[in-house]
Amino acid sequence: MPGIDLHHAYPQLFSQSEAELVTSLQGPAATVRPRHKLAQAGVSVTACSYLLEGFAGRYRADHQGRRQLLGLLIPGDFVDLPTCRLGHSDHEIEALAPATVSALPHAAISALRQDAPDLYDKLWQVTLLDAAVERYWTFRNGRLTGRARIASLFAETLVRQYARGLCGLNGCPLPISQTDLAEACGMTPVHANRMLGELRQERICLFLDGRVEVMDLPRLFRQAQFDWDYLYLPPATAERLSQVAQGGAMTAPQGRLRQVAAQS
């Protein structure tokens, strides 16, 4: 099966054998197009989805159709694991880019309670980790300034992917539109564009063509007031980040900088 398994997504939580067992319970992988709905609010389901490749977003919309992006799902995340107990999702989830998912039947998860109770408990620990990220999103949009919100989202996305071996510390994929970014940070697209310009001009980071390029990681962390404690990272990863956060600037490829300058 393509994509990342649970052992590589949560190396401190799932063993390789446990990841292989979960994979054996999943259905065949399916690729969906961008903006495809992976879950619909209020619709009963009998399986949850595991994101093997690609990105997805959680959102709700008001009565005028204005959306608030509630969370970002990266490879290695369960899309809607709580539906195993709740029966349906209370929000919409859609692919933000081409994504590959596999279904894990609710019945198979329930059977683990008897057949593999330790693994069953670990799956519910995943929901607690997801809840920790969601709490931080509430803090971010409720307390941080506009520029810090964007910097924090970039830092979080980078660190989450880095911890799974999906990117280095000089940049990461983030295949979302500027409108998506504004919705995630609770601001208008115009305001988001202005904040992106400031981060670029100060050579902290740039956002272009579905990717974040980091020019100065320590400054990005400081601008974001970023503390990764809520991500519950493996100790070695957290230690590495602490070391890098105290270091010097990281330079983005000059070609990317020239490309941005030409568009400014």
UniProtKB/TrEMBL annotation:
Which Gene3D superfamilies does the record match to this protein?
Answer: Jelly Rolls, Winged helix-like DNA-binding domain superfamily/Winged helix DNA-binding domain
Check the record and name the CDD domains matching this protein.
Answer: CAP_ED (cd00038)
Q: Which InterPro entries match?
A: cNMP-bd_dom, cNMP-bd_dom_sf, HTH_CRP, RmlC-like_jellyroll, WH-like_DNA-bd_sf, WH_DNA-bd_sf
SMART domains from the entry?
HTH_CRP
Every copy of the HTH crp-type domain together lies at 144-218
Entry keyword set: DNA-binding, Transcription, Transcription regulation
| Domain of life (superkingdom) | Bacteria
Q: Does the keyword Nucleotide-binding apply?
A: no
Q: What is this protein called?
A: Crp/Fnr family transcriptional regulator
Species for this entry: Paracoccus niistensis
